[in-house]
Every structure is written in structure tokens, then in C-alpha cells.
NAD(P)H-binding protein (Amycolatopsis rhabdoformis), 302 residues
Amino acid sequence: MKILVVGGSGLLGYHVLEQLRLRGHEATTVARTPREGVDRVVDVTVASEDDLRELLAGHDGVVFAGGSDDRKVDKGPVAPRLHEGNVAPVVALLKAAREVGCTRAAVLASYYTYFDRVHPEWGLAAQHPYVRSRIEQARVARETAGPDLPVAVIEVPYVFGVAPGRVPQWSVPVVKWVRSSAPLFAPRGGSAATSARGVGIATVDALEDASGADIPVVEENLRWADMLTRMSGAAGKPRAVRTLPAGVLKAMFRLGGRVTGLTGKQPGLTIEHLDGLFLRELYVEPPVHRSVDEAIRETTKA
């Protein structure tokens, strides 16, 4: 296969490229800024239809590994910015991919769409603009691609691991915390977790299979306390993790929501409703259980 990887200079895009090349496939790396290893410098959010067709010509498939994540915060409504980052470029890419005859595609997305699908009673889409943008992304991707261009949606949870010059952005403040001597607190609940390498493997598997499935990627399910325990141990600062009462967590998020509201900023995940994520077990049964300890060590020491 010859695959175009948009966002190939990022953490997950790097590992998709690595897996493609390990399996003998060709890959073209696209990013919006020049960087070592980037083959084409293109901002797909503003590229013309002709430019996208020229970019995709000769490729068997495309991976979208870019977009806006849930930490995007700025003044004014966040929904238009999430649409611009997550939905519009996918529509443009897949339209061009269909027109030049690509036969497979993958979109790297979020595991929140998995939980909205299996637990609609949680109301995640109603509560969080970011979740809505990812649901819309998957829907319009398949509508745009049509039946002859299957689109796999790779539903990514908390990721550990590194790439050259890249770490998971969510991990940056947490790693600073566990490296310090400050007390560690965690609420009940936990999350599915994977390595960046695991995302690369799942994505290339989907491309090889020309899968059009929703694919949640998980290697382990971790309680928040277990996650912090492993990270602090990897940082050389092992210590006990105390339980954060649910009432305290809810009060913190309510206060955080009010403060954010006063600034006129809106995050992708609504702060007032974050307790509904951190107090639940956001677990996915892994098809094959693999420890993420090595990826945790890489992340903590990067």
C-alpha cells in the first residue's frame, strides 16, 4: 500500500508511519509546518480541492491523524473551532480521496465516541462539544467517502509513549506533578489506556483490512490511582495515592466551570460535567491484554 498520513509529525502519526514502514508499505508524511521527516508541508484546513487531489494522487489510502483535541480553549464558542479542526478537513480529504480512487482510510478519533455509543444514557454528546465534534466527524467521514472507500474510526483513549520531540499533551502537567514531592490524589474510577505504538498497530491493521469499523484501541484498563502509582514509580518518586472524595471533585469542577465562564472561554469538555468522566470506569475490554508499563516509563522520563 501507499498511504498518505496527515498529521504524520505528531505523536500518533509518527507511530502510524513507523508501523506502515515496518510492514513494507510506502508512506507520505503531511504536516502544516516543516519538520524533519515531513514530505509535504500542507495545511489541509485551507488547501484547495485541486491541491488535495494532487496530494492524494497515486495513494491507496489516507490517514487523518490531526485535528483539535479536548484541551482546545479560547474565547467564544468552541464548537466552530472544533468543527474547523476535526470535521471540515476530514470531509475535504475524503472527498478528494474518493475522487482519485483511494480504497481505504482511517481517522484517529476519541474513545468518547465509543462510550456515547454504548452508554447513551450518560449524555456525553449533550454535555461536551468535543464529543459532539468527534461524533459528527465519524458520521460525515463515512457519508463523504461513500461505500467504495471504507473509513475506519480509531477510537483512542489515554495514550502513553513518545515520538521524537513529542509526548502526550495531557501527560505534561501530570508528569510534573508525579516528579514533585506533592501529595497525590485520585478519584474513584479509571480509564482505558494504550501506547502510541498500539494506536499505530491498530491503524495499520485497519488499513490492511480496508476496515470501515469503529475500532476502540485499548491495551489496559487502569484505575486513576493505579495510573498515578505507576507514573510516580517510573519517575523515581513512588508514594501512596490518596482517595479524592467525589463531593470534593464535583465542587472543584463546578468552581472551575464558573471561573472559566467568567473569562468568556469555552473548553471542548465542559468543566462542570467532568465529574461524569472521572468518577466512571471508562473501560473497554481489550482484545489482547498488554501492559503499558514501558510506555508509561517512556512518557514519565521524556
